[in-house]
Amino acid sequence: MFATEPVRLVAVSAGLSSPSSTRLLAERLAGAARDRLLAEQDRPVEIRVIDLRDLAVDIANHLVTGFPPAALDAAIKEVVEADGLIAVSPVFTASYSGLFKSFFDLVDNTALTGKPVVVAATGGTARHSLVLEHAMRPLFAYLRATVLPTSVYAASEDWGSGGDEYTDGLPSRIRRAGGELAAALTGGRAVSGASRTSGLDDEVVPFEQQLADLRLD
């Protein structure tokens, strides 16, 4: 029987600029998960990207008053009701951003129980990549989510890089993380994203073109 209920993927981006490398990474991760899901099962896939920069004032008001404005309330509900979650923050002072933390402070600490989550971050240098393990993974463990094995950090030099014989480039890491999220949602075996699939490696040139006007945040 054909299942018509869509798989709902929500990506939360805490990028502050527009265009934003943080939003771009969130979109690429969601796209990788969608492509794997569509290849492995017959349900449609819905993707929603939530830009926290658009909700910054609402988040502050909620923290002060205890009452969420309608747009913020809807965003929190989308995160809670999603089948899978992608959470991406820029690195500020060696951790996730205050805006990112403030948003997830408003999510009940049992609301994400068991939900598969991919964590990712952007920054100007690879030296801050451990923020994923030291800050983001513990945050979602506290929220009782299931944080998937592959986390993705994108430094400035990663955009447009295909890696080499010893290291995976950013597109490969995105595919791996997306594959793990898809596997978690379908009950399948998580597979390495290192094998060549069409789409992401082919987009190296667009990455570079977008960086011409892209500020890392």
Brief sketch in words of this structure:
With 217 residues, the protein is α/β, with parallel strands linked by helices. The chain has seven helices and seven strands; from the N terminus they run βαβααββαβαββαα.
Name some characteristics of this structure:
217 residues, alpha/beta, seven-stranded mixed sheet, 7 helices, globular, disordered C terminus
Q: What characterizes the major β-sheet?
A: 7 strands, mixed
How much of the polypeptide forms β-strand, as a percent range? 15-25%
**What structural category characterises the helix and strand content?**
alpha/beta
What is the helical fraction, as a range of percent?
Answer: 40-55%
Radius of gyration: 17 Å
Total helical segments: 7
Overall mean pLDDT stands at 85
Order of helices and strands: EHEHHEEHEHEEHH
Shape: globular
Low-confidence stretches: 189-216
Quick one: how many beta strands?
7
Distance between the termini: 45 Å
